[in-house]
Amino acid sequence: MDKTMRRTVFLLLFALGLAAGCDWFKDPSPREARVVIDGAAGPTIVLIASSKFVAGVNDVGVTRVEIIQSDTIVTSLPFDRTFNIEGDYRFFIQAARLDADVGSFRMQVFVNEDRKFDEGGSLVENAPYRFVFQFNQFLTDVIDVTF
Questions:
Q1: What are phi and psi of 18, to 5 degrees?
Q2: pTM score, two decimals?
Q3: Whose CB has fewer CB within 10 Å in the chain, the N or C terminal residue?
Q4: Which residues lie across from 84 on neighbouring strands?
């Protein structure tokens, strides 16, 4: 092998190694959504989780979500669960208070280990925390839901 050929092979191998190190070959499609909720222990909350819905942004910038199928989870804090969304490539979660306001509340949502949502404050009546994700689709933070 002559010097030019070795240099070409070396540069090609270097470029492939660099590409692999930059996650160029990593599949970006979402496989899981992890929900972590912290807050004052004691109060019960209600979660509605779904990967079976349709969503889109209307002409005034509101994301409209129509839930087709969902799971309702009644739990107390803290809460940490991973949901499989492989194949659906979408995830919706809503956290609401059940009987009493929750003074200290923080909800985080991770999609494939990437934090996509991190909000906190009080969880009060008629003011649920909502998060919606669809792979490769822009959605707004203003969310209107139909069950």
A1: -65, -40
A2: 0.82
A3: N
A4: 32
